[in-house]
């Protein structure tokens, strides 16, 4: 179903950032699709055919570590878009993209977008900013996996998932979290018990309801602050980015000090 900019406002933050005239031109080229949990939006090693602007839900970007396992290096919610690496010129996806929390997206064909690129200068600038954010996030995520304990990484993941989905209750299982964090299920279960003892969330059937976000932020490793700052920076005008980049460098220095 084609998306009509006049009747429906996008929930995706990249699309929301566009000027009204550009959004009006883009609307007829967008198609709304549902994101069912566990759907593979993009396989690693295959050509990227669409960009998916996430409206609701969460998509994990997964890097293969061996023939059977993959680890999450990036989490995309309604702040972002799936398939943006195609804009770097390589249509073959390095990573797999798996729907972690179901929802919906607005998609556009890569060739359609490239054909009409001159009509969407603001969109291109927004996508470039998001690509930069993604590269920073995936690098920080890799460093986090090497140096920080699972309890702190789990707290970070829950905060990031809430930021990107705006959900108070996250429909994620411990099996899915173990896959995302690249650890065994018993390891995640132990970290879960410790977080429950802090009273930061409650389990409601298949939902994790966050009750005390401030405590969760205190428990999370400093990578959460670093990643949030990267995200905030990409949304600011260039004049503010330099100051925030210096803040980011300081946080990364603190992360290294804390881990050493
Ligand atoms: Zn970390």
UniProtKB/TrEMBL annotation:
Tell me the Pfam families matching this sequence: HTH_Crp_2
Q: Name one GO molecular function term.
A: DNA binding
SUPFAM superfamilies recorded: cAMP-binding domain-like (SSF51206), Winged helix' DNA-binding domain (SSF46785)
User: Does the entry feature the keyword Cytoplasm, yes or no?
Assistant: no
Domain (Cyclic nucleotide-binding) spans 14-91
Keywords (alphabetical) are: DNA-binding, Transcription, Transcription regulation
Query: Mind telling me which GO cellular component terms the entry cites?
Result: cytosol
Which residue numbers delimit the HTH crp-type domain?
Answer: 148-214
| The keyword DNA-binding is annotated on this UniProt entry | yes
The identity of this protein, by name, is: HTH crp-type domain-containing protein
Query: Taxonomic lineage of this organism?
Result: Bacteria, Pseudomonadati, Pseudomonadota, Alphaproteobacteria, Hyphomicrobiales
């Amino acid at each position: 179903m084609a998306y009509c900019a006049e009747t429906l406002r996008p929930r995706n933050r990249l699309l929301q950032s566009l000027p009204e005239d550009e959004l009006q031109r883009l609307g007829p080229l967008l198609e709304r699709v549902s994101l069912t949990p566990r759907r593979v939006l993009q396989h690693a090693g295959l050509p990227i055919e669409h960009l998916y602007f996430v409206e609701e839900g969460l998509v994990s970007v997964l890097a293969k570590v061996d023939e059977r396992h993959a680890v999450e290096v990036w989490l995309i919610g309604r702040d972002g878009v799936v398939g943006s690496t195609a804009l770097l010129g390589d249509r073959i996806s390095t990573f797999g993209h798996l729907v972690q929390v179901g929802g919906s997206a607005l998609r556009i064909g890569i060739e359609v977008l490239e054909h009409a690129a001159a009509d969407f200068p603001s969109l291109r600038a927004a996508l470039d900013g998001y690509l930069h954010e993604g590269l920073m996030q995936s690098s920080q995520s890799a460093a986090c996996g090497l140096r920080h304990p699972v309890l702190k990484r789990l707290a970070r993941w829950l905060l990031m998932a809430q930021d990107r989905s705006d959900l108070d209750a996250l429909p994620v299982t411990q099996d899915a979290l173990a896959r995302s964090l690249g650890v065994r299920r018993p390891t995640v279960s132990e970290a879960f018990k410790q977080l429950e003892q802090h009273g930061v969330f409650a389990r409601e059937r298949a939902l994790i309801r966050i009750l005390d976000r401030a405590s969760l932020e205190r428990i999370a490793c400093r990578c959460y602050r670093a990643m949030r700052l990267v995200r905030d920076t990409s949304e600011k005008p260039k004049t503010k980015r330099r100051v925030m980049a210096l803040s980011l460098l300081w946080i990364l220095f603190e992360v290294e000090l804390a881990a050493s």
